[in-house]
């Protein structure tokens, strides 16, 4: 059971034969291969180290790829039939005939997603509270009366599908077009790992036109890695940014956000940009370029009446 759910197996050497026999009955050829490979390595190690005693064999997940694929099949099963084209494994014959034993139905935009409370409650405190607090108020699925129906509002079926696959497999398909919408929902559903995945997607599309808005997003959702990537990018184009009213407004807002800030106290945004301008400066030409950028930043601060 531990292997099924985590991809990891710790077993006493005296039970390896029994484990292989059970794996064969369950048609777990990958586990059998892993056990045989591990036994061979242990035998070679013990042969080279006389007196060594190995009592436990450990099979560890390799990048979680296999486990992710297996768990993603449960997400495939949860999809309504009319939404399956374009998602998950194709063809869907295997999922159509496979009973995943769902115990909760999430209704999104009139689509029914047959899911498992253990995954949603285990991954999200939001869903844990939702299902525990409102379980008695939910309706029942007509085709399967034993399954309660919980209607989710203010979310599209497309965004919920991204949430669904993340909850089951710890991964989901994101694009620059949907990353912000998924981020907002991930924040509401208390899924910090998914928020970080969204941050990585947004970091790949930084440019002069969106850098300030994405920096604001990073601040709002407390994505520190994305925020740092934004200020690093700002440092590279600071001479263009200082000409923009939007950037000046961002600096002012950041200064006002510092509690009980004095006139000469630091401004986090400015400090971070300065750090990236001056970091890794080694050549004379790089020093000159850094000084020009710092001067442009200082001129902006002077023009808006700020010192730091």
TrEMBL record:
Residues 241-307 form a coiled coil. GO terms for cellular component: cytoplasm; ubiquitin ligase complex. Keywords: ANK repeat, Coiled coil, Repeat. The keyword Coiled coil applies. It comes from the Eukaryota. Residues 102-176 form the BTB domain. This is ABTB1 protein. The lineage of its organism: Eukaryota, Metazoa, Chordata, Craniata, Vertebrata.
